[in-house]
Amino acid sequence: MMSEHKAGDSALIVRVEIALCAAAAMLLLWKGLIPAWRVLNTDFPNYYLVARLFHEGYSLDRIYDWVWLQRIKDHWGLDQPLVGFAGLTPFSALPIVPLTIFSALTAKRIWIIVNLAFLATSAELMHRSTSLGRRRIWLITLLAVLPLRTSFLYGQMHLLVLLLMVLAYFFYRRDHVVLCGLCIALAAALKVYPLTFILFFIWKRQWRAVLATSGAALAVFIVGGLVMGWEPLRVYAFEMLPRSLQGETLDPYSLRAGSGAALFHRLFLFEPALNPVPALASPTLYALLYPLWQATILFPLFAVLRPFDGDKEREQMEWAGFLFALLLLSPVPSTYHFVVMILCVVLLLDVLIRQNRRGLAIAVALLYFLISQSGLIALPAHAGAGVNTLFAFSRLWFGIVLFVIFLARLYRGPLGTMQFRGARFALLCFFTLVALASSVATNRRHFFHREQEMGRRLVPPAATLLATMPRSRSGPMVFVAMTPDGYRISDAEGHSVLPDASLHARRPADQLSFAVARDGSLLVELAGASGSRIIRGPGRSVLVEDAESPAISSDGKQLAFLRENKGMGSLWTLSTSSSSDGRAVLPLRITDESYDVREASFLRSDALLFLAQHEGRTALFTMTPGALPVRFFVPDVEIGSFAVSEDGHRIALTQLIHNRWQLVVLNVDSRRTTVLTEADCNVYTPSWSAATSIVYATDCGRGVGLTALSSFDLSAAKL
Known about the structure:
disordered N terminus, 6-blade_b-propeller_TolB-like, Neuraminidase, four-stranded antiparallel β-sheet, 20 helices, 44% helix
């Protein structure tokens, strides 16, 4: 009688699990796969663009330039309002390279099918690595509804990262350390955090795994540099990654991030547009408390890790707990990052079920479900700001509770005890204090000039995600603004200066660069599927096709512009006056293939000054009609952009100093430079708004490259 009752319970459980699997699969199909199949959506075009650039032989040096990548997107006709590659590794585009022979939407559909194969393979490998049956593996997997949905919908890389980490664990359990290390290195090439497993192996004294993972990572880096070029790797490692670790990739204050970095940004860091009312504006508190938060997670975790002793069950728990801690500490996690959490929860539930801890297993499953679904439910509009903040970070709170469960299971019971004595614990305390002091010092240095930069900030217009290329127009300042619908020339109130004639079209042309003529009219680059063209506003007459980045001479008779071929810029000029016999005036190319021109401007003499890479160096060159370019200024560091003062005696430059773009003034007569900014952030596209005032774009306090406008008063600085 008892056995029949148990058999009935078991059959009921099987039916419930099958029903839940079917429901979750249908929900994923309805909310994830079908919408993903129909549209490109946000992230996949970013990978596709860079992969196609690589496939077609472009230089990848400028893939982190928001405006440049938008121009490429427009020229290739991708139906996507905005693109950007900030925060992504150059390697992360490589899996899409074979798909670039197809259109973007077809490539995404193939990627969806490939990702389904990744998911199925991951599930099968988790089944072979645990005692859980396939049905329960799939049930746990499909309960990650929101991470799976957004991963498919956005065409992300995290299902491939999940597969690689599952493979790494699969090989780890079988003592195939070389293959384990290779999988971790490949996963880290896509998303950096798996590389932290080197510390895991060091602390567990698994030296073969340390050597295998380190060697594989070095090999991947070298091959990547040889294949893609060293410059994009340098830019990512030294310019992008440090800002990513600070949580400053997109919006550092986003409630959707649900991370510790975003929480501390919102609590302690003022930014006039993104976080105008922090709880307590204090960069010093951030510099102290954020490292303490990280130490609070990592110290007890490393305290319960112990050298390998053959206990397979404990090894499983340690691997799962360490991987989950990396996800919990991620400074900029999105929902799709938590696809990898599937492996952590499968390994934990496998141990709990084998130990007959079913109540705790149910609690873990519930926490996992809540973490996975955080963000699906919106608060009512009348909810207070504090309630909104607490609710928005619910994923963080649930994650902390689940992490405590990991620690508790590793601390006591059949899995062993924490060792609070001996040289090992003393060594952990020492390394923790060193890391904590280093992190606090790094944060303080990062914020050292922050308040000074915020004091120079101009009032940001509403709904502007990025503001760059400021120019004076008979007094008022106009600039290129990134809006949710694309790029527009805007004024300080956020109004479009040159409304697009095709605004009623599905995708208006992006206005990516412009020049201001003496009469106040604008020469605007419009970028579309047929290429870029330069028009004169407000009449919108087309001056020249296949042209970008215009510059106009002081008398208005000469137009200079760039044309690109596979990312290499050439400099052209065009007379704006009609020829004497009435024939159309044709553009004239004035630089050869040895110059990769990035920007041009006219001097007071109407000679051209342009910025170009030539013979492996970036420099400023001058040029007069009929003559060869002459080196004007060749610094020891890279130049990003420049602007000539109205009197012609000074040039505002951006230069790469200690891996950050800083504002510099060059005295034309003496050729001496003065560095004006020193903050741990970037300055772009300076412009003179007056004889002693420079307006520039800066990403201080914002996502890297997502700039606002600031002004530097040279007279106040006594220059």
